[in-house]
Amino acid sequence: MAPAAQPKKTDPSFQPPGPAREREAVLQHATCAVCGSDRQSVILEAQYENEKDLDLIDKFRASGDELLIDRLVACAACGMQYISPRLRGDLIFSSYAEGEDPVYVSQMQARERTFAIALGHVERESGGQRGRLLDVGTAAGGFLAAATARGWQAEGCEPNRWLAAWGSRQYGVHIRSGSVFDQPYEPASFDVITLWDVIEHTTDPRAMIEHCRTLLKPGGILVVNYPDIGSWIARGLGRRWLFLTSVHLHYFSRSTITRLLESCEFRVAVIRPHVQRLELDYILSRGAILSPGLTGLARKVTSMLGARQMQVPYWLGQTFVVARRTNALLLALLGSRELAEMLMLL
Residue ranges per domain, the chain? Predict the structure, then answer.
């Protein structure tokens, strides 16, 4: 998304007007998660008057669809885009932990199909080996079910207690309730760690990536899926891009996600568009927030044709990354990233 013609420097003491709640008590200033800089320019001003979900549990449910009302800024040093100011991290996490989300789990069959295809790409990078896998922010466990069916020793963790319980019951997979930072996972114990639609939600993406690195075996694989704000569709739709939502705190592009991963001692092996599948009526219902009339008409036609539950592929900028944990000592001794990577593959 192109910056505004005359970007304005932000002020860490900035406090927006407080419409429905005392925002000065619940918002905090944020800095760049990629390079740590505090120098920012405004891309989109806040629109708090358009807030739809006053209840934070509704706002932060997995199927939440409130369009962005917060201020979007860009790092003046590296170009990373993110929300600042934003809700306090404790409020965000506690909101994710509560509530039920039957709308999300209504699409699990389509999600399983998407995950099965994605696993094929992961297994190509792993040389066909199926070891121990951790899915961070696993939601209702669809990816765990797909991985287990293909022979992986798969487990996951999920902040939302209702989704974790639903997935454990539905699929018989091992889902721990809570954050990955709360779990007793042993260092260097996983061959693959996956972050499906997670990194953009976390308050500290760097801490998340670094923690995942400690849990991966040397040479282990990290999979990250995120909505790319540098994609042509995001740039074309601007503020009407459906992934520009209140629950997404960070907006990566290919360059900023690569920079973050490399600074956390990962080597990016694959980065490409990620096509997902959902039921047609569900996809159309998500578009109602932009055009209720047109969406309503399209849903009626779909219903008449008996195609409401048809699973269709869609892409709105979702991007799939596979990165491999590198050996920091080897890199330091050799002083050559390219040579180190060649030796690691021997």
Answer: 23-97
